[in-house]
Design a protein that fits this description.
Elements (H helix, E strand, L loop, with lengths): L2 E2 L1 E4 L3 H12 L4 E5 L19 E2 L3 H5 L6 H8 L4 H9 L5 E3 L4 E4 L4 H14 L3 E4 L3 E7 L2 E7 L4 E4 L2 E3 L14 H8 L4 E7 L3 E3 L11 E11 L2 E12 L3 E3 L1 H15 L4 E6 L6 H14 L5 H4 L6 H10 L13 H12 L1 E8 L7 E6 L17 E3 L13 H16 L1
Parallel strand pairs: 1-10, 2-3, 2-11, 3-7, 11-20
Antiparallel strand pairs: 4-6, 5-6, 8-9, 9-10, 12-19, 13-16, 13-18, 14-15, 14-17, 15-16, 17-18
Length: about 400
């Protein structure tokens, strides 16, 4: 019967980092992966570009996490964005920092990130067992003894880390195995909910806006008439509703409000850099500079072409109307539409369609300085299987790598 110093279940970012760090400490490591190759989900992260981390300081970074800031403060104190960037740069992967502090490989290829990790697995002599699904951990007297696979094979180790990810994108292998393993070993699972998911919108006219993306917009969420959240950044219209970074970031509070049977409306401000007076002055300038032109032609300077027709209908305006015929009241309607176009949220796409999973193994049952279970000696957790989630921008990927590194440093 095979025996190892440590077994890592799951070869995503957290699991691979845990295995690499453990091997650096001369542990004999087995990495168990249910897919035929490691890092399947990593390849689609960041739209295939892999947003590794964010360059902001630790306070701003922690502010992107909802319920797990104190837990992650301990984790990031040991391995944070600077250490992660050095990890890859030392492996000759060149990085770049884009708008909003988002860090990517210069090549814009997630595969290059994965190649660094796979190369390190090889050079550290880490055994990778692919196409094998772990069923449960073997526990005796509240101590880890190994794992049992679905083929009923026992593999022995005194330390096991669960790094199986969440339930988003199940086609990549994230099907919730880690939650079942954790529950069987006595851990409490915080209920799983969608996070960073697209939002379904009631108004059908936005179907005509499918594929149009907007930069530098502000969206505000209202539940039961009360303002509950606001985000600024990039958004994408889809055939069913809203996606893109700012829409994904507000999906969790939208989901929670809908669960409480609140009516949820989303306000889009197309021109957040302007106040009412400046926008009114701009419209007047456009009208005076183009007398006799239709309002739909003037709006080509204000909105993407594909949006204009439906936007003017929303404002109860005839697109062919001449600028010289626009009344002060109609101008006010246009300004209101540019500042506050209201849409009704019907639902949030299910967790399987989200970028990350909200919920997971309770952080109160994990020591953040070691990632070891407080309930079972020798059992560790890393990555998305834990109840940690954040906004888009590289924060979740950093959390995966950081918890993986701390896990590997102690396993």
């Amino acid at each position: 019967m095979e025996q190892f110093d440590a077994i890592i279940i799951g070869a995503g970012p957290a699991g691979m980092m845990a295995a690499i760090r453990a091997a650096e400490r001369n542990r004999r490591v087995l990495l168990v992966e249910r897919n035929d190759t490691p890092g399947k989900k990593l390849l689609i992260s960041g739209k295939g570009r892999c947003n590794l981390t964010n360059s902001c300081d630790i306070e701003d970074f922690l502010g992107k996490f909802s319920e797990s800031r104190a837990f992650l403060r301990n984790v990031f104190a040991k391995f944070f964005n600077t250490e992660l960037m050095l990890f890859f740069e030392d492996a000759r992967l060149k990085l770049k920092t884009e708008r909003g502090g988002r860090v990517f490989p210069i090549s814009d290829r997630a595969g290059d990130v994965l190649n660094v990790l796979k190369s390190k697995l090889k050079t550290k002599n880490i055994k990778v067992l692919s196409g094998v699904r772990a069923r449960e951990v073997i526990v005796k007297d509240k101590k880890i003894r190994g794992i049992l696979t679905y083929s009923r094979k026992q593999i022995l180790a005194t330390r096991v880390a669960v790094a199986t990810g969440g339930i988003s994108y199940p086609g990549t292998g994230s099907t919730g195995d880690g939650y079942r393993i954790a529950e069987k070993s006595g851990h409490r699972i915080i209920p799983l909910k969608p996070a960073l998911c697209p939002i379904l919108i009631k108004e059908r006219f936005i179907r005509d806006w499918q594929g149009i993306s907007l930069k530098n917009v502000r969206i505000t969420v209202f539940a039961g008439g009360k303002r509950m959240d606001e985000r600024f950044g990039e958004m994408l219209f889809t055939h069913f509703g809203l996606s893109g970074p700012v829409a994904l970031d507000i999906s969790a509070p939208v989901h929670d409000a809908l669960q409480l049977k609140n009516e949820v409306t989303i306000s889009i401000n197309f021109k957040p850099a302007l106040d009412h007076k400046k926008l009114d002055a701009r419209l007047l300038r456009e009208f005076k500079a183009n007398p006799g032109k239709s309002i739909k032609n003037i709006f080509k300077n204000l909105l993407p072409r594909g949006i204009i027709r439906r936007f003017l209908e929303y404002c109860s305006m005839e697109g062919n109307k001449s600028t010289s015929q626009i009344t002060a009241g109609e101008r006010k309607r246009l300004i209101r539409g540019l500042f506050d176009l209201r849409l009704t949220a019907e639902a949030v796409m299910p967790a399987k369609d989200g970028i990350v999973t909200r919920g997971g193994v309770n952080t109160k049952e994990i020591n953040p300085r070691t990632m070891e279970s407080r309930l079972v000696k020798g059992l560790f957790f890393a990555g998305e299987v834990i109840d940690i989630d954040a906004a888009t921008g590289g924060y979740n990927m950093q959390a995966a790598f950081s918890t993986g590194w701390v896990c590997g440093d102690n396993i």
